[in-house]
Amino acid sequence: MDFATDMDIQREQMKGIPRSELAIICLMNSNPQIPDISESYLDSLLSNFLPSGPFGNGNIINQSNLAQCIPFQKNTTVVLTNDQISPGVWYIGYFHGIGPARTQSKMISRGKARLVSTHITVRGCPTSAIWGPYCNQTVEMIGCSQPSIDNNSRNLLDLNTERRNSWYPREHNRRINILSQRNQLAEKEVGSNVTALVRMENSVTCSISNNSLCIRQGDMKFYFLDVVNLALQFEITAANFGVIGPSLICYLRYNAFPQRDLHDYSGDISHDPLVVKSPNIGRWYIAIETVNKTQMNNTASKPVLDTMCFSLKWQLTGCLNGKTGTNCSWEVYGLQRVPRRSPIPFESYYIPSNERASLEDSHFYLEQFLSNSSHEQFAWTYFFLDVAQGSAGALIHVQLKSDKELNYELYSKYGGLPSNDIWDYYASRTSSSNGSVFFSLQNSTNSDLDLSIFYAKEGTWCFGVKHPTDTTNSQTYMSVSLQGCHRNCNQKGVCHSSVDESGLTFYSFCTCDRDHGGFDCSDELVSPNGHIWQSVFLIASNAAAILPAFWALRQKAFAEWILYTSSGISSALYHSCDVGTWCILSFRVLQFLDFWLSFMAVVGTFICMATIDEASKRAMHTAVFILTALLAATGATRSANIGIVIAIGSLGLLMGWLLEFSTARRFICWPWQINLNMPQSWPNFGTLFRNTLEVLNKRFRWIFLLLGFITLSFAATSWKLESNSNYWIWHSMWHITIYTSSFFFLCSMRVNARNRSPESNYELTRQDSLPRSERET
């Protein structure tokens, strides 16, 4: 995966970047990402993941323990080998800024955009029977020992009982072709001090007879099997290889090829079988190698030429009749999905698929489904549900509510049975597994248990309830649902849904109100009193428009007076709507009026400083109306608009001065002869320069002109310093300084220079306005 971006920050500068400006790429299998914003995680992200040496020059990252997120750099290449990836859907998330952020104003969402290009190449072998970097290693297929077995393609332990129809995950794309043997129903008595239980099992067994599987010392052979439903265990046994010989080491790994130093389970099957309790649903890969007994502690065994042949037996065991557990004594129920009428497409709730639960109710009473046990203090009851394809951006919400003190414990696991030792998430009245960003336990009391699993993986989830055996005196209801946003954004925002760029997965997110932020709008960023003060500052700061409006009214410049007054009023109304106080018109209309009139006020100040006739001013104002309206309509919040507006105003001022200069002086027709005596012409330019300075000195008051430029520089600084956290203070300063700078620029003009008109021009205009008949007489 090649990632290229226009961000180029050196590695030593990474820790100094605020979290709100940190750009990261997150990779995750099976579900969308939620970046961890804790300080410890960010420290490990920047110090442990990045390779040594200069970063950002196309480094190759190839580590066995891949971090979830990496920072953006100029060029980043991530290489994942087949022992680092597992089959399924991979999600790539781009985050420009992490942590809670204010959305108080739509203006503060502006900022520098980052350009990102991504190139992903997936290389694989043409079939699942071969693998390796050069596709030169094989994955062996295993046939059963009896020749009369049906030769169809099957998956291990595909139990087609009526009560388990809803437990199957979605169809696997690849199947294992083996000869399977389904044993008859076996009844085994398990002794107990109290009573005798009947263990009812169904098993699938496959084996390879002696001399049909041979392996050299130091070599490794691979196999795989698919577990598509609940299983108690599977075990791998080796036999018929002799007493004296090397040890036979077996490595197992879920959903990826095992290695000597990277596996889930391992053991010496030359002495005892390797047993995996409650295996996950999915594909398991198995590796077998022979190791000399004298070198078992050395993983880099010295290969010898001896070849060892043996037989291998796999057995996968499960329970029947809706039971599970070690002794097949615990109840297990499949939950069926009932969609809800909601704008979020995947919202639904789950209830047991039998007559004891009603489809109309989103909850069910738990005691009628609990397992009974008279010889143990605690019992287990399991519930399975399936998260449909395309719903990985939802969350699973589970709630237990009792009329008495709740003494239940809740365990969850993806793809298999949870237990005291193996689980993904755990919650009880007194403790929980709150170390994950994908898990939340909130508002739990002595009688309530409320937990959520964010962005749950697609596929089968199992929830195990550990409860006392005596529950006759309590009444507890349980609700399991698939929701869009956590706790409906805590009533502090609005839940939205969208689809990823591939269009195959829905995901939900919260748009928080002006005072809250975070993944579920649970972080209060501004207190109510702080919000009131910020609103007052943003609205009242527009009163600075009174200064230039007062000057214009005093000089009887009514057009400028209307412009400054309407600009201040429209800005106050816009920010009143923006902070959530009152909207007299739609937000978009108010935003357009605010920016358009603000642009016009800036440009109008420059045009007013040019003492030209009214006809020229009207022409320039008309052109400026069109240009500033286009700016406000196409991208009002662009930072570049400030420079564009000042450039337009400066151009208008320059054109006004040129027009005034052209009417004040007549052009002189120079002779065509070339005068080589150039020094005689230099005094004319010096006189022109001195006359220009004299005119400017007579026209402007320099102290006000200097104050105008100082306040204008303050306005530009305020605009530059605006961010999510300090928007209200710096934008209020922007209002004050930009109107004050206009006031100083207008006051810098001398009144007599502004109203002065040459007497000769006036007389000429009066004479030319007479009718021709009167002039001829």
Question: Care to give the gist of this entry?
Answer:
26% of the residues lie in helices and 27% in strands.
Structure in words:
The protein has 777 residues and is an alpha+beta fold. The chain has five domains: 2-119, no CATH class; 131-322, Jelly Rolls (Sandwich), CATH 2.60.120.380; 329-484, Sandwich (Jelly Rolls); 486-525, no CATH class; 528-662 and 691-760. Helices cover 26% and strands 27% of the residues. The protein has 13 helices and 35 strands. Helix 3 (546-554) runs antiparallel to helix 4, helix 3 packs parallel to helix 10 (727-747) and helix 5 runs antiparallel to helix 6. It is elongated and about 115 Å long. Residues 48-66, 143-200, 299-305, 666-674, 753-770 and 772-777 have low confidence and may be disordered.
Blueprint (SSEs and pairs):
Elements: E1 2-5, E2 23-29, H1 39-49, E3 59-61, E4 69-71, E5 75-78, E6 90-96, E7 116-119, E8 130-131, E9 137-138, E10 181-182, E11 186-190, E12 197-216, E13 220-227, E14 233-239, E15 247-254, E16 265-268, E17 274-277, E18 282-291, E19 307-319, E20 323-324, E21 330-339, E22 348-352, E23 364-365, E24 378-387, E25 395-402, E26 409-414, E27 425-427, E28 439-441, E29 448-453, E30 459-468, E31 476-483, E32 493-499, E33 506-512, E34 516-517, E35 523-524, H2 528-540, H3 546-554, H4 558-578, H5 587-608, H6 614-635, H7 640-664, H8 682-699, H9 702-721, H10 727-747, H11 751-755, H12 759-768, H13 772-776
Parallel strand pairs: 3-5, 21-24
Antiparallel strand pairs: 1-5, 1-7, 2-4, 2-6, 8-9, 10-12, 11-12, 12-19, 13-18, 14-17, 14-19, 15-16, 15-18, 20-21, 21-22, 22-31, 23-31, 24-30, 25-29, 25-31, 26-27, 26-30, 28-29, 32-33, 34-35
